[in-house]
Amino acid sequence: MPELLHLEAPVNNTSQHDDPALAYPEPPASPLWHRDGPKAKPLTPEQQRRNCELLLRAQYTPRPRSPRTTKTLAEAS
């Protein structure tokens, strides 16, 4: 009769018990994370294209700077 192989899990030097972040179990998910009701409709290709254009424009268009007043903060007080 051939010998049976005894397989063991590899020894992990960084045990979960050593990590202080894992000292307590993860809290349950908030009920606010779950939505009841109808699912959102998928966007049409035209809506996706427009959203992409608006996003690119918003990322690469500099925001207008507000005009500076001539008074300093000390003078304004």
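(ticket continues) Second input and output from the same batch:
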Amino acid sequence: MTIRTLIRGGLVITASDELHADVLIEDGRVAALAAHGTAAAETWTADRTIDASGKYVIPGGVDAHTHMELPFGGTAASDTFETGTRAAAWGGTTTIVDFAVQTPGHALREGLDTWYDKADGKCAVDYAFHMILSDVNERTLKEMDHLVGEGVTSFKLFMAYPGVFYSDDGQILRAMQRASGNGGLIMMHAENGIAIDVLVEQALARGETDPRHHGEVRKVLLEAEATHRAIQLARVAGSPLYVVHVSAEEAVAELAAARDKGLPVFGETCPQYLFLSTDNLEEPDFQGAKYVCSTPLRPREHQAALWRGLRTNDLQVVSTDHCPFCFRGQKELGRGDFSKIPNGLPGVENRMDLLHQAVLDGHISRRRWIEIACATPARMFGLYPQKGTIAPGSDADIVLYDPHAEQVISAETHHMNVDYSAYEGKRITGRVDTVLSRGELVIDRREFTGRAGHGAFIPRSTCQYL
């Protein structure tokens, strides 16, 4: 049975507009918008009316970088697709794009099918996949074409983690050449992993084993060098490039220089680089291990360059790189050797709230908030306008957001399956009130009403910026 839902009286904010409007939803999609109080809006009838007075009505967030159930460092990310997508919904994110992993020596198809199995019937919100290439050869290059055909249109390679995910420059070039022909988007973890491993070995030999040394060996210059190299390889291949989790001013400068030349080069940063710093890695009693991720947290002075990059569009997307490991029993694997600390932070539930706080702090505008968290990730990864906006025909993925509610971020109250918060005790203003996914209430006035299995796999078209 079709339920018509009417959202009345809120301020609708998209990447392009702000309008006091009513939104009519039918068959899981936005049927119409009309200015609040107009004759057109007053004639609408619905089975369910939601009062959005005093609230923002925004598109559901699109988090284009998550790692649910990712095996890493002898353990696995602590959020399942069920717990992770439920937490995403609590945070106002209604679509995630997770990473399926190819195991070296195995087919891409095998890795993708493993991730289909992990997610099927488990997700509270919609999901899609990128494909991690960890073994580039003639067979896997041909498989890339087939994956693009079934809606997995982006491929991640690593210049870091030798022996795990690492690809050399020749493999990267070949994958980029293939993507230039099939419409795929190459995503790059840009750090010089070969050099970093030398610095890790030398640091441990000197007895430098604490978490803070993780940040010290993964040097800013080695992120900038790898970013530069990735850009030049993409130029040779005639391929677009999307650099993930950009953390440093020098890497932003490489992206800006490439974009100034008109190259199809894009960059993403994450809340941890905007709000945290090496100060966190230096917390005593091994607490710094909670903040070990790669690229690593940087000194606080890099934050200004990242915010500036988001304002100037040299960085286009804020994703989370959500890859949680519990402090007890997982992060603790690296006591006495920082190189054994599982790399990753929890954050899928916090992104929309932290970016709203950035609006209040004057870093970005309200529309830019929606642009970098909803519309641009949807466009970048072939989901727009189905996702990322509120417009007739779009999926009714809609968040009612209370811009005045105050909250304190804490592991005591979050819904991610991890025993700490990276933002513990941070006071912010703004909170998700109600969330609809394809017209179905998932969060209803701060109560979870969703279910595992509501979330559907969404095949994606190719990047809409090319």
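Agent notes: The two ends are 40 Å apart (CA to CA). The longest helix spans residues 220-237. Closing as not reproducible unless the customer responds.
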